[in-house]
Amino acid sequence: MQENIIKLSEILNEGYNEKTVVALVADFFDKNFNAKGFRVILKENYDGNLPHFPLYKHKKIIGYIEFTNTNIRLEKFLKIALYMLSLKFQNIELTERMQKAVDFQNAMKNIAKILETQYELNYIIPLLGEMIDKFIQNHLIYIFIKTGNKYKLMWPSACNENKIFDIINLEPRKRITTNEFGIFPIITENKLLGYVVTKNIDTKLSLKETEYLEELTNQSALTINRANAYAEILKHATLDALTGFYNRRQLDERIKQEIASAKRQKTPLCAIMVDIDFFKSVNDKYGHATGDIVLKTVSKSMRSQLREYDIAGRYGGEEFAILLPFTRADEAVMVAERLRKAVEKKVIDISKTNSDSAENEIHVTISLGIYEFKQSDTEEDLLQNADKALYRAKAEGRNRVVIYE
């Protein structure tokens, strides 16, 4: 028996969740006791008629061990095995709770960090969605933001659950949790901004998950509210606060001016669309504070390679748009290659935001798409075609320059 206890102990150490433990234990009993039909049933009430033993967790029955055939040797060992299994399940639960608490604190910190430099809802909401989705597992997460009198799905890209739309259109101002959904209003200063919604896949939200989601939603409400207020201020500004490039609104104005000038004077004009490669991975691995450092460093490196009259703007997130007046496509390629090489060789110091890791420096690369404006083009064609070239650059391996053809 001592040998089997040691074997079972070793097997239990390999299991990291209840499903894995159940599979490993069933295999153990099958091989060592010829216990055909052996099953671990994780439910409170037993509805079979085979030999079975109750399985406890915190003195409460959580399941049963069932088997087709039995013998004295197996029954003696089961008393010890049941105790070992109960301890294992309790340890799994404790570990999951501790990890959940750590994940929650990290999620709250990351949401708070977004406040420091981000103000575009189209950029902020996907970040919030990814953080909450990563934290609340086994549930689908949706974020709706109120625009006018309607609620627009901001994350992810689609929701086919009509019940969700029916509920949020009633504008409940208190949390709703059912066996199917969790509806969490995003409210700040008594103003309803939208909803964080969960769709239950396996089980309904636990009490602890519900508490966590309420706190995450409250933190998100602060982030969204301040972003809205900041965006209102920035309507009258011209520069992006993080990179020092033109903001999206001012960039659109400059595009109109440069296109009008190029048409009037019949001079060449090129656009370069730039994207930081694998930027999401940087945020996921090092956090959003490090992501901001990357954005600042990349924009500074690019600015050092541009002429005084070139126009650079932050198009959104980690994407930039650059206008090159009086420049043809072949000349734009030379500029783009200078930008690419400058960013590629730049060492980015992340020690201030990555103190928990031994890694203090990283490198990133950029992909670039080029388009030369034609007299017959519209304003939209300039960046749209440069963006298509950028898409090709990323599809062909990234860290390269591609001209629209």
> Quaternary state, please?
single chain
**Structure classification:** alpha+beta
State the separation between the terminal residues, measured CA to CA.
75 Å
Uncertain runs are none
Alpha-carbon Rg, integer: 29 Å
Reading off the top of the CATH hierarchy, the class of the largest domain is best stated as: Alpha Beta
- CATH-assigned fold name of the largest domain: Alpha-Beta Plaits
Largest sheet: 5 strands, antiparallel
Number of separate structural domains: 3
Q: Write down how many β-strands occur, each being a DSSP E stretch of 2 or more residues.
A: 15
Mean pLDDT: 84
Strand order of the largest sheet: 5-4-8-7-6
Assess the beta-strand content as a share of residues.
15-25%
Name the CATH superfamily classification of the largest domain. Reverse transcriptase/Diguanylate cyclase domain
Helical segment count: 11
Order of helices and strands: HHEEEHHEEHEEEHHEHHEEHEEEHE
Portion of residues within helices: 40-55%
Architecture overview:
The chain has 405 residues and is an alpha+beta fold. The chain has three domains: 2-95, GAF domain (Beta-Lactamase, 2-Layer Sandwich); 118-234, 2-Layer Sandwich (Beta-Lactamase); 248-403, Reverse transcriptase/Diguanylate cyclase domain (Alpha-Beta Plaits). The chain has eleven helices and 15 strands. It has helices at 2-14, 18-33, 72-117, 121-135, 162-168, 207-234, 248-265, 279-286, 288-303, 329-344, 379-395, and strands at 39-41, 52-57, 60-66, 139-147, 150-155, 176-177, 181-188, 191-200, 269-276, 311-316, 319-325, 348-349, 361-362, 366-372, 401-403. A five-stranded antiparallel sheet has the order 5-4-8-7-6, sandwiched between helices. Strand 14, helix 11 and strand 15 form a beta-alpha-beta unit. Helix 1 packs parallel to helix 3 (72-117). The longest helix is centred in the N-terminal third of the chain and has 46 residues, at 72-117. The protein starts with a helix and ends with a strand. The model has no long low-confidence stretch (mean pLDDT 84).
